UniProtKB/TrEMBL annotation:
Binding-site list for substrate: T45, E119
Originating organism: Muribacter muris
Protein name: Aspartokinase
GO CC term (a single one): cytosol
Tagged with keyword Transferase: yes
Top-level EC class as recorded in UniProt: transferase
Length: 450
């Protein structure tokens, strides 16, 4: 088969008629894009989740009206609305029926069935739009391809069965020259029930289809023109990266950068399929290729920032306790299910930062009184908050002479609470005050990238 790209357009890219038209133009302009995976129009999935959680009739009616309005604003701009209106009305009607039953009793299977309608609607509208631009688009129900287990809300694909179904359903269409338009995020279990892969799951669908189709690449069209050296809202001189490795992108995401985490694209990562990230609203601005081993590998790739970190410093009450000190400290933290992030140690003390990601807490309250009491019985405890973790991400950082010197020189004007250097070859972390964070990122960016 000739060169094949699987393109995925996210919710903001298909939010309204103008955005969808821009996506249609991108698909038409690229002869390699033969399979297109769509999210629901922005906002729709959130509304559907609310309906699936069961709400009172007044709120339900308001949401149904809002969902209808979003899709109708698109229909109203289509040349031949009569070609899709009936189907969209049928789906909207279905949403209403499912929402009413969710109002009586919710269930994970019902939730997945209901929220799958967002992608069903966006793909119908987009297919019609492509037809109006003379593009041989073919709508496909992705549930006939993506087979999953029955873990509603976070279903795992059955790769073998999905492969077989892709061979049967998708390959003939592609061979006929059709442009396949299909849904991200959803699948079907063995009982024939609709499942979903977890929020944001459309990227996974695109990567999975690329894998089973042996595609050359995955194009993720979103609302940002690729990945930057750092957040452009903080550093005006931030530069777009031409390339970045899957590992470096994962480090960036882990350290707080709002970039696509490669884990959401696992099939592409494991099958070594390059992933492109670009903006559907500004395709001419270019994007970033995320690949397994881009060359060259620069020493410094990017800077990430994660705010609102907590630093706990624990010191042993007596040298007698020094043996096993760290083991005991970590046992206590583990017992309280605290995920430790960055650590530095000296002989009888340890400083560690806590990552609040994934916890509902908004500050030091993730340190329960129980935990503190238990720690205090054993060691001195000092807690500092309002800190920010700045991570420099790159390659072979531990092997480059002069990095520590360069870093310290740049950080001279700031009160640095902690530096973690040497544990990872891919990052150097430093903890500074929240209020200094923007300046530190700017200073580092200037020193390392400008
Ligand atoms: N529409 C789904 C969501 O909002 C899936 C996706 O956008 O990737 O989570
Ligand atoms: Mg999305």
């Amino acid at each position: 088969m000739s060169y094949l790209s699987v393109a995925k357009f996210g919710g903001t890219s298909v939010a309204d008629f103008e955005a969808m038209s821009a996506c249609a133009d991108i698909v038409i302009a690229d002869a390699n894009t033969r399979v297109v995976v769509l999210s629901a129009s922005a906002g729709i999935t959130n509304y559907l989740v609310e309906l699936a959680n069961g709400c009172e009739s007044e709120r339900r009616e308001a949401i149904l009206a809002a969902v209808r309005a979003i899709q109708y604003r698109i229909i109203d701009n289509i040349q031949h609305p009569e070609n899709v209106r009936e189907e969209i009305d049928r789906l909207l009607n279905q949403i209403q029926i499912l929402a009413e039953s969710a109002g009586l009793a919710t269930s994970p299977a019902l939730t997945d069935e209901l929220i799958s309608h967002g992608e069903m609607m966006s793909t119908r509208l987009f297919t019609q739009l492509l037809h109006e631009k003379q593009c041989p688009a073919e709508w496909v129900d992705v549930r006939n391809v993506v087979a999953t287990n029955s873990q509603f809300g976070k279903a795992a694909p059955d790769d073998t069965k999905t492969q077989q179904q892709a061979d049967l359903v998708l390959k003939p269409l592609i061979a006929q020259g059709k442009i396949v338009i299909t849904q991200g995020f959803i699948g079907r279990d063995e009982q024939g029930k609709t499942t979903t892969l977890g929020r944001g799951g459309s990227d996974y669908t695109a990567a999975l289809l690329a894998e089973v189709l042996n595609a050359n690449d995955v194009l993720i069209w979103t609302d940002v023109p690729g990945i930057y050296t750092t957040d452009p809202r903080i550093v005006a001189n931030a530069k777009r990266l031409e390339t970045i490795s899957f590992n470096e992108a994962a480090e960036m995401a882990t350290f707080g950068a709002k970039v696509l985490h490669p884990a959401t694209l696992l099939p592409a990562v494991r099958s070594n399929i390059p992933v492109y990230v670009g903006s559907s609203k500004a395709p001419q601005q270019g994007g970033t290729w995320v690949t397994r081993d881009p060359q060259p590998r620069p020493t410094f790739r990017a800077i990430a920032l994660r705010r609102n970190q907590i630093l706990i410093t624990l010191s042993s009450l007596s040298m007698l306790h020094a043996q096993g000190f760290l083991a005991n400290v970590f046992a206590i933290l583990a017992k309280h299910k605290i995920s430790v992030d960055v650590i530095t140690t000296s002989e009888v003390s340890v400083a560690l930062t806590l990552d609040k990601t994934g916890s509902a807490s908004s500050g030091t309250d993730m340190l329960s009184l129980d935990l503190l009491t238990e720690l205090q019985a054993y060691c001195n405890v000092q807690v500092e908050s309002d800190l920010a973790l700045v991570a420099i991400i790159g390659n072979h950082l531990h092997r480059q002479a002069g990095i520590a010197g360069q870093l310290f020189a740049t950080l001279v004007p700031y009160n640095v609470r902690l530096i973690s250097y040497g544990a990872s070859t891919n990052n150097v972390c430093t903890l500074v005050k929240n209020e200094d964070a923007n300046q530190v990122v700017n200073a580092l960016h200037q020193a390392l990238f400008e």
